Amino acid sequence: IPGAITYYIAGLHKGFEHFFYFACVLFACMMLVESLMMIVASIVPNFLMGIIAGAGIQGLMILCGGFFRLPNDIPKPMWKFPLYYIAFHKYAYQGLFKNEFIGTTFPSSDQGGKTSSLSGEHILRDIWQVEMGYSKWVDLAILVGMILLYRVLFLVIIKATEKVKTITTLFAMPLNKRSMQVLVNPSSTPMHGGESVVVV
After folding, report:
1. Which of 27, 65, 66, 200 is a plausible cystine mate for 87, CB 3.0–4.6 Å?
2. What is the number of alpha carbons within 13 Å of residue 198 lying toward its C-beta?
């Protein structure tokens, strides 16, 4: 609902397909943030430390997502390779830019005062440095694929920590606290005149 209000107030690209894409990207980003925080929560045991770690990861992704610094201006080691390509913000930004600018033209004037038109594709390619080799739907598909990957990663981490906790609690338990069953077998032959005892 807030997305629908702001979309039309801001005067973004009219048409149901453009708004539908906008809503899908917002929903995918919400799911990605939730999935990422689930992974952080499964690794970090402390609630406050989990929030701090999750916010730190989000901050790194936002910084190198291609909005605050254009892709060609991002420092190459670590920031562009691999963080720029790992950050889901890159695909959300570029998908939303393509959704808004492709198929549009804008009036432009050069230094001599001559007016001409500037295409949205030119703005995307030369000003925003958006990768134009694939469509906005591919950006959305990458976001959905990242959601699935994060959820599977969360499941793997949960199952692995479950097994580790079971093993560590078993070994950490003192020997006298472990459950021990003593069974008496009345039908067996007594060895020294008494009943035989089986300890399990």
Report:
1. 65
2. 8
